[in-house]
Automatic annotation (TrEMBL):
Belongs to the LysR transcriptional regulatory family. GO terms for cellular component: cytosol. Keywords: DNA-binding, Transcription, Transcription regulation. The lineage of its organism: Bacteria, Pseudomonadati, Pseudomonadota, Gammaproteobacteria, Oceanospirillales. It comes from the Bacteria. PANTHER family: HTH-TYPE TRANSCRIPTIONAL REGULATOR YBHD (PTHR30419), NITROGEN ASSIMILATION TRANSCRIPTIONAL ACTIVATOR-RELATED (PTHR30419:SF8). Pfam families: HTH_1 (PF00126), LysR_substrate (PF03466). SUPFAM superfamilies: Periplasmic binding protein-like II (SSF53850), Winged helix' DNA-binding domain (SSF46785). It comes from Marinobacterium lutimaris. The keyword Cell membrane does not apply. This is DNA-binding transcriptional regulator, LysR family.
Amino acid sequence: MRQLNPRALEYLNALSRSGSLRKAAARLGVDPASVSRLISQLEQAVEMPVWERSNSQSPLTEAGNELLVYYRQMRANEAAALSRIHDLKELQRGQISIALGEGFITDLISSSLQSFIAAYPGIRLSIQMAGALNAVQLLEDNQIDFAVTYASAPNPKLHNHVETLHPLDLIVPAQHPLSSRDTPLALNEIVDYPLALIDSTTGMGRLVNLAQESNHLRLEPHLKTNSVSVLKSFVSAGIGITFMPALTVSSEIEAGIIKALPMQDGVLANARARVLSIAGRDLTLPAQALLDHLKSHTQFLNSDVSPHLR
């Protein structure tokens, strides 16, 4: 097998995105014959077909897709290397894009983000709110550098940079009948109380669904939402109960408005906060600096849940 031609891989990438040789040539600004010639050379190098000339819906073969994954990882790693070389050793400037769940916002904004911006004034941040499922999609689409997720599903395409234990607790008003409970609750003990649940595209929603399946029961929420703030208000107002990691409502717990009660269910009790990126793809220097900063300055990422909150 001969050495791969980077230009041929670039043409293969254009072919994948365009769906046809002619459109790929137009996208690249070259003659179609040039694209065809380099694709043929690529096939000779790997000794296998890399595209199906008669299939306009999915032109790449399995070998072609393997080469495409290699090319895109190579480009991403090249961008990371150039980022390091390009006047970033002192982190004078740069761009970072991350996604995180709404439940992390208070912890992020309270001190860690403020101190990072003060330390690196030339770096520009983009933060997208996303549940665990949407955050993973943003990673796979190369839209963000890394994602801070809660209870994300296992994914072999992702690299886990940090993981901390933050169980999904039952959150109740301070005067609720369950608030005096000093042992973990079973899921069937909460069915008679007004309940709010979050959307299943979030990690919290995914875990509640798994817990219902493992306990062979179905919870009937009085309220469903995609907003952590709505859940907080629902409980703070004394309307009912919900599920949330204690740290998300730490201010309300310390003010005596809310209590966090542990659950017996192992799925809920072993929930984790994680920082994820695409496996095999180096973070840029600014993104790595932000990740290191968050690991040391945010409560969600620098330690497991504090016992005093529960």
